[in-house]
Amino acid sequence: MAVTDDAILRVREMIVTGELKPGDRLPREADLAERLGLSRNSLREAVKALSLVRVLDVRQGDGTYVSSLRADDLLGALSFVLELHRGQESTLEVLQVRRILEPAATAMAAQRVGPEEVASLRALCDTAESAHSLEELVAHDLEFHQAIARCSGNAYLAQLLETMAGPQARTRIWHGIAEGGAVERTVSEHRAIVDALANRQTELARSWSTVHVAGVEQWLVGLS
């Protein structure tokens, strides 16, 4: 194991065990390095790596602190990585993950969704149907899927799906959908999902969500 990797594991262990809690200030570099049996250079590299993924917060002139460790903060690093890898192959892999997670979130939402949320989802379908630009379609699509994920009641799942729903990739996909004349079909699938949610038909909601994401995935495969 590389020395820096070992240093990362040591610091991570302190956080996982609760020795260091969110908001805690790390001991001085020299003291922590001696305590962990690490060189100051390897500890410095570990801190740099953990700050990049937002586990640690380095404040110049003040010290290094454990971040809030909130899911939305930590997953922000994943969002950055995904935006760096937005080629066709990477986008397809992200869709494959969405095809696993979104139907599960939709099924969970069917058990919890309320009348106001259903009304909001129907309104999003209406506005998408009358959208005048690609930007509007992308915005409505993002809000539609994010709203369903939030209805799942699982904050981690909702945040993960939101992180994977990069606007750049969706813009490209919606551009293809619009050019192929499939906007009406896509909105129709959205409405079918909402109907299943409104009627608390868990498995039907899951199925429509699977069909919806799989259809986009098939379209992308057809481009290769």
UniProtKB/TrEMBL annotation:
It comes from Saccharothrix violaceirubra. The keyword Flavoprotein does not apply. Keywords: DNA-binding, Pyruvate, Transcription, Transcription regulation. GO terms for molecular function: DNA binding; DNA-binding transcription factor activity. It holds the Pfam family FCD. This is GntR family transcriptional repressor for pyruvate dehydrogenase complex. The keyword Phosphoprotein does not apply. Residues 1-69 form the HTH gntR-type domain. It comes from the Bacteria. InterPro entries: GntR_C, TF_FadR/GntR_C, Tscrpt_reg_HTH_GntR, WH-like_DNA-bd_sf, WH_DNA-bd_sf.
